[in-house]
Amino acid sequence: MRVCIFCQGNASTMEDVWPQWLTKRFPLSDASRMEAEIGGRNLGNWRNKTTKLLRVKCVCEKCNSGWMSQLEGQVKPVIESILDDRIKKVDVSSQALIAVWAVKTAMALEASNPQRKWFYSDDQRRELRMVSAIPERTSVWIAKCVNQPNIYSAAKDLWTAPGQNEVHAYVTTMAFDSLAVQVVSIRPYINLLRGTAITYGVSEGPWEKVLMQVWPIMPNSQRWPLIQGLAGDLGLEALTNRLNPVKK
Asked: Structure pTM?
């Protein structure tokens, strides 16, 4: 029996990793596509219209029709306002909604590959369900995409060199037409005091002009969009590889 990744109940329903209210906004054509990969494994490429995109049997009916449905209902008007260019500032409550939704989506995407050892723990998924608690040492950013009419997601495992106080990071990058979202979660394999920060390097680029941090929440409302955006597939690829893995 498959168990729900959020409550350990019977995983009796299929979860749309990319929510239908979002995918329906972007009908597939010759100029568009949908693609997903996780840990180097290609989960699929979609170029023709289909009702079955990225679906995973990983949640129970109670979660799917309960808190998850409620979360989608809350975040939908925020994301649609961004996609429709109807929003000039992202307030504190919108930042929190986007962050919780992005982490939930990253967890569901991870469940689409049952053969790998998952990064997020049962406790972290349960706490997200119960109190919308985002895992410690997790950061979430959003960016505006230009000339990028696709739906895309990619998840990567990153490691420090062995023996160098090893740290495991998990980076999930998603894009829905003009909106990109990146989630970075970090897990140290040494004992650290709670709240101890872990820094990491990023590739060269004007990221401070491209990325808006929504978790940890930024004080006050943040102006949207930022000065620069991600240009086409190359910009999205640069974001995906912003944190480069170190081979073990």
From this structure: 0.89
